[in-house]
Amino acid sequence: MNEKNHILTIDDDPTARAALEMLLEGEGYRLSFAINGSDGLQQTLQSRPDLVLLDAMMPEMHGFEVCRQIRAHPLVSALPVLIITSLDDAASRLQAFDAGADDVLSKPYNELELKARVRNIMRLNRYRRLIEQAEQLNHLAKYDPLTSLPNRASLQEQLQQWVVNAERQQQVFAVIYLDLDNFKQINESLGQLQGDLLLRQIARRLTECLSAGDMLARLVGNEFVLLHDMQDQLDESDVASHVKHLLDAISMPVLFDNHEWRLTACVGIAFYPNDAIQGETLLKNAEIAKSRAKAQGRQQYQFFTAQMNFNLIQRLAVENQLRLALEHDELRLYYQPLMQLQNTSQPRLVGLEVLLRWQHPERGLLTPHHFIDIAEQSGLIIGIGSWVLEMACRQGHLWHQQHCPVHLAVNTSSLQYQQLNWLSTVDRILHLTGFDPHYLELEITESLLMESEAQENTIIHLLQNLRSRGIRLSIDDFGTGYSALSYLRRFQVDILKIDQSFISDVSVEPNNAILVQAIIAMAHGLRLQVIAEGIEQQSQCDFLKANGCDIGQGYLFGYPQPVEEINAFIQKQFKSSSSLIKH
Ligand code: C2E
Ligand code: MG
Ligand code: MG
Questions:
Q1: How far is the CA of 496 from the centre of ligand 3 (A)?
Q2: Shared-domain flag, residues 94 and 156
Q3: Whose CA is nearest to atom 28 of ligand 1?
Q4: pLDDT tens-place string over residues 75-131
Q5: N or C terminus of the chain: which is more exposed, having fewer CB within 10 Å?
Q6: What is the whole-number distance in angstroms between the Cα of residue 254 and the centre of ligand 1?
Q7: 573, 348 in Cβ contact below 8 A?
Q8: Do 110 and 15 share a structural domain?
Q9: Which pLDDT tens digit goes with each residue over 278-297?
Q10: 173 CB contacts (<8 Å, ≥6 apart)?
Q11: In terms of residue numbers, what domain contains 471?
Q12: In terms of domains, do 14 and 134 share one?
């Protein structure tokens, strides 16, 4: 036996207690004692013994009453109690059983009989515990402990059953795959414990929305699956309204820590038998549709289509190849000139934007448009982004040593800023390469500044830390994102890069011209530098220069080029003018 069984003896008579101690400790039990009823009750609750030996006749509280109270308390109600009584008549014995005793022994007792009864009770005890454990294990195997909903294993089992039934009865059902948006961030800002409570609340709300016959399960983390019975008719609009109902329930505000949270979710839907006839495939297809919904933003839903499967297979292939691209040294950096437009007769090189390329073994040189989304969605962008920064800083340091003090603008993804170690990664790279952070610009996207409110302070702090190192921050593709200018007040940045879509017809389209003038004026008002992207014609350059745009970038000045080609350009520029722009 691993641990001695514990017996609590409640008896007011010291001689009787000593006798029991002698007798039962010799049998290998651990004994403790209480000298009256109320002390006994207290100890019972505190130490939860395996058995209580209870004297019936005690002053203050009678043993029967102690027994009754033990039975009434939910924590110890199932505790075995053996009452020892000096009343030998049948009526008293019955009274003892009535009070809840498991067994009754009359005084004076036969020692062998006492030992045997205690042994029996302990054996029954062990048996009961084993059954309880088995039940618990069984429950854990089928239910999610957090929400008490069926788990993935039960869902799979049920799904098989639904398929069998639907086939037999010629019926239709929907697999509805639901994934909460940005739950990882919410969990990080709330803390795991609160995040769990939030999930429970969502599970409860979803449960309240179920129609008769629906089955709801929680897969992992923030993913739920609903099986929705549709009888004999496939009616997409009916399912769509059911899904909208679920999404509405999720997005009702939740009050946590005096803060109102609004959760959203994305949903993918697959039908039996139209989209698949096997449970596993149905679930997979619903998940594919869910990923497609996610790619469209928050609070979206999508029905599965066969085309999605095809696209997914292609994407997965690219993702796998991209995973290897770093290892196989297939990524390249191209550099495109950034030209100072003001206070100079001729546009003058001040920096380079670093642009990623993938030298694909079969498809040739690929621009980011072919792979950057996949890199983001798969998380590969984090490793790739660090690689880009390191290679760029290495090259930048080399140029500085060759007396060409160029600024480098490196594109970054919002995902990198959500990593806890992004700042230390930047520090490590700066230290490793020796590149002067005052010459480094990190291009961020508007989406980073529109992240959930919960993250806002973390991001503000991170950006401040980067700027305190001398790094400058620029907002890339300005005007294409959310265009909510209020964020410029909350986040400190240094540069705005006006998106090329505004520049392309700036010299002919009056509306765009007015917009660009307004953006430049506003940026200057906020003491930000302005870079115009995508300048291809002299007339665009003239317009921008006349309106005070600080820096230009575009094919007019130079295409993105590999290091060997851009080298010549840089050397020529810096040889011809030794005076460089100060920032
Ligand atoms: P971006 O940061 O806005 O970069 C400017 C894009 O405009 C580049 O496309 C560049 O080749 C193109 N471009 C420059 N001048 C002109 C012009 O005069 N006319 C036209 N039509 N286009 C011009 P690219 O190299 O294909 O890069 C596309 C986007 O991919 C970048 O847009 C950037 O958002 C992203 N990207 C590139 N490198 C990286 C990287 O290392 N990390 C991350 N996260 N994103 C990157
Ligand atoms: Mg850029
Ligand atoms: Mg851009």
A1: 10
A2: no
A3: 368
A4: 899 899 999 998 878 888 999 999 999 999 998 999 999 999 999 999 988 888 888
A5: N
A6: 40
A7: yes
A8: yes
A9: 999 999 999 999 999 998 88
A10: 162, 166, 227, 228, 229, 230, 271, 272
A11: 332-582
A12: yes
